[in-house]
Specification:
Layout (H helix, E strand, L loop, with lengths): L3 H4 L4 E6 L10 H10 L12 E4 L5 E6 L6 H16 L5 E6 L3 H19 L15 E5 L6 H18 L7 H15 L2 E6 H7 L2 H7 L8 E7 L6 E13 L8 H4 L7 H16 L3 E12 L11 E3 L5 E3 L7 H13 L5 E6 L3 H7 L4 E5 L2 H14 L3 E3 L17 E2 L8 H9 L8 E5 L21 H12 L3
Parallel strand pairs: 1-3, 1-4, 4-5, 8-9, 8-12, 11-15, 12-16, 13-14
Antiparallel strand pairs: 2-3, 6-7, 7-9, 10-11, 13-16
Helix pairs in contact: 3-4, 4-5, 5-10, 8-11, 10-15, 13-15
Length: 472
């Protein structure tokens, strides 16, 4: 059990109690008084954490870790408990876990993960932006926290990239960051720049990229290839660094925040980072479609017909449906390697947000076992996903008189499903999961993550890959 004398030195302390009604740990009298004042029962701490200042001036928060609650609920409670502690921007945090050895071992990784994720400071160009949490002292458990730390680092990487303003993370700067990442992590890297993609016949990607004043767009592949890899996976991410909508220009209300449109690529990169840190026995190629959707004299237009990398001709219906265009060629490129599974991530459609709001993300899968695995990974991590249909008869809406397929429709009905049917044209017969990231941002945070940019998909993807690598 935690040493009370050592705990007394912590200035910011999180106390995690086991399931049930028991109260233990430092300052139990204070905790009882707080519960009485707020008319709460001891078991309510599993949903409603409380905070108090102790006699020695330390700030203490209490929460109950109850495995009977869902992973989302447990993560939310842990985030709420940590919020008042981290609001003071401590550089050090104490976490004390109580209960049986099994209860302590189960609670410690979640508590540490929540602290690392929420103790990070995302990029902001303010004179005072606070300090990041530098160290955690864990009392009462000797749990292995390496996996939790790896996924937390990956989530923070994803959110940091997504938070960068578009003048700092244009395609050229993004590619430079990826080179640095690959070098520091010992991963392979290949860049398919716009000139090379045009020679290859990637007309869908080029149509979007050609509107930019600079020819800095590219598809970038990063490779994690451990010895003894049992699986061969491809992660594909939409990396639109800014989306104006092109000639179908977005109004100001909908253009705000469009530097987040590269979030899918950041999720894929985060999963790659987590997998390498966790030493998962799978070869993983991350294919990142990095471009901007600008308006200009060379930008693609409605009614044009372009030819994708796999020879499919596409009738352009709406220039703001650029995500599926860059993904089409990127998926086709990834499919050439014949991976066991392709998983793509994209902030793709507004209709998915209309369908789910921003607390779930939508998934589509071409194999029943992948669909089950996707939902199970969401339940295990608290990054919840909802399975959607992608039956063949939906595709009748995309029939074109002048090309093999329409890019989309103008009425927008079931656009998230139509987008999946469109993208399915570019995967060959590869087993495929498509993730439409409706939960990439959530105003008040989501689950264990307290910032508007959630990093949703990183923990889900790490768990999905872990299960695939284990043969599930």
């Amino acid at each position: 059990m935690p040493d009370e004398a050592t705990l007394a030195k912590a200035r910011h302390l999180l106390v995690v109690l086991p399931p049930g009604k028991g109260l233990e740990g430092p300052a139990v009298g204070t905790l009882k008084s707080v519960l009485e004042r707020r008319k709460l029962k001891p078991e309510d701490l599993a949903k409603t954490p409380v905070t108090a200042t102790l006699a020695n001036g330390a700030l203490c928060a209490w929460v109950r870790h109850d495995p009977a609650r869902t992973a989302f609920e447990r993560g939310t409670a842990m985030r709420k408990a940590l919020a008042p502690l981290l609001e003071e921007n401590p550089t050090e945090l104490g976490i004390a876990v109580y209960g049986t050895p099994e209860a302590r071992a189960a609670a410690a990784p979640l508590a540490a993960y929540a602290a690392w994720v929420n103790g990070a400071v995302l990029p902001a160009r303010k004179k005072k932006n606070g300090a990041a949490l530098a160290s955690i002292s864990l009392f009462g458990a000797r749990a292995d926290l390496d996996e939790a730390r790896a996924v937390a680092e990956a989530n923070v990487l994803c959110r940091e990239l997504t938070a960068l303003p578009p003048n700092e993370l244009n395609p050229r700067a993004y590619r430079a960051r990826l080179r640095t990442f690959a070098k520091s992590s010992g991963m392979g890297l290949a860049e398919y720049d716009l000139a090379r993609l045009r020679r290859m016949g990637a007309g869908a990607f080029a149509a979007v990229a050609q509107g930019s004043a600079e020819s800095d767009a590219a598809i970038v592949r990063l490779r994690y290839a451990p010895r003894g890899a049992k699986r061969n996976l491809a992660l594909v991410g939409k990396g639109i660094c800014f989306d104006t909508g092109g000639h179908n220009l977005k109004p100001a209300r909908y253009m705000a925040g469009m530097h987040h449109d590269m979030n899918g690529s950041a999720v894929a990169l985060g999963i790659l980072h987590a997998a390498s840190r966790m030493r998962l026995p799978a070869r993983i190629d991350a294919w990142l479609a990095i471009a901007q959707n600008d308006i200009g004299p060379r930008a693609y237009r409605q009614s044009e017909v372009v030819t994708a990398l796999n020879g499919t001709t596409i009738e352009i219906v709406h220039t703001d449906a650029e995500g599926r265009m860059v993904l089409a060629d990127t998926l086709a490129l990834a499919a050439r390697d014949k991976p066991d599974v392709i998983v793509d991530f994209a902030t793709l459609t507004g209709s998915m947000i209309h369908a789910l709001g921003n607390r779930y993300s939508g998934v589509f899968a071409t194999r029943p076992h992948l669909a089950r695995l996707a939902v199970d990974a969401g339940e295990a991590t608290g990054e919840r996903v909802c399975l959607f249909p992608m039956d063949e008869d939906y595709e009748s809406a995309l029939e074109s008189k002048v090309a093999d397929i329409k890019q989309c429709t103008l009425d927008g009905e079931a656009d998230h499903i139509l987008a999946s049917r469109f993208l399915a044209r570019f995967i060959s017969d590869t087993p495929w999961v498509h993730v439409d990231l409706a939960a990439a941002t959530c105003t008040d945070g989501l689950g264990v993550v307290g910032t508007e940019i959630t990093g949703f998909g990183v923990a889900w993807g790490a768990e999905f890959v872990r299960r695939l690598a284990a043969g599930e």
